[in-house]
Design goal:
This protein is an all-alpha fold. About 75% of the residues lie in helices and about 0% in strands.
Amino acid sequence: MQAAAVALDDAQLAFVDSTPAPDSLTLFRYYQRAYQVLVQARHGRGVREALAHAIHYAADSAQHAYAIGELTWATWDGDRFVHRLMFDSLLTRATDHPQDARRGLTTLLAHLEQHAATLEANYNVAILSWQLQEHDRALDTLQGLWHQVDAAASLPYEAFQEDVRETYASLLFQRGLQHRQDGASAKAFTYLLMVTELDSRHTGPAYLEALRLTRSNPDQARQLQPRIEAVFDRLTPQQQRAYLSLMGNLYRRIGDRTQAKAFLERFQAIPN
């Protein structure tokens, strides 16, 4: 009994570190702070390592998603973290100095190695070109991007293809309206039909503007009719009424009372 008591006393007096091991939340926050400091230091490898640890110690789905998102941002051009910082800096500069920002992005493009990074940089070059009134250059760049995004193995972010689609369609639509205002109806018609091929939110307005350009060419208008009918249910009620009015008046002008009446009845069935 005495020996057991001595052993117990020795155990209680042992110099054992009783400080509990840090939990996952503590470690996650530690590596999160380390990551933020390393970003300021422009230390690419340190950034990637800190985020890898943060992912490992993430205590819930929100922390995991945060760390994954930041790692995706940091590895925008693979191991070349400085390119991500340059890209962000140029986008900030674009607000007040679009010419300088575009020049910088064009220079950066020559050094990018990841295709997804190249796509996003080119996308922003196109937007800046449009802002700088270089409309044809902007559209040429967007056309090239649109043909690339379908075949791309990876994209800069999930909604990138949709962003390219909507931006390209919007600028084509604006360019078509510019040509119409300048009296270049044939060019305007071409651009407007290009819009309709992109299946964007601009499809309805583009068809209506193209149809308005065919007022003196009934055959051309009737060629558009089946294409517009194919997307009729996707048009807003206002767009539907505009289409039915345009086609009904066209048939009335050429003396086809049956078709004119049919379009009038459809027009009246759509609530204001």
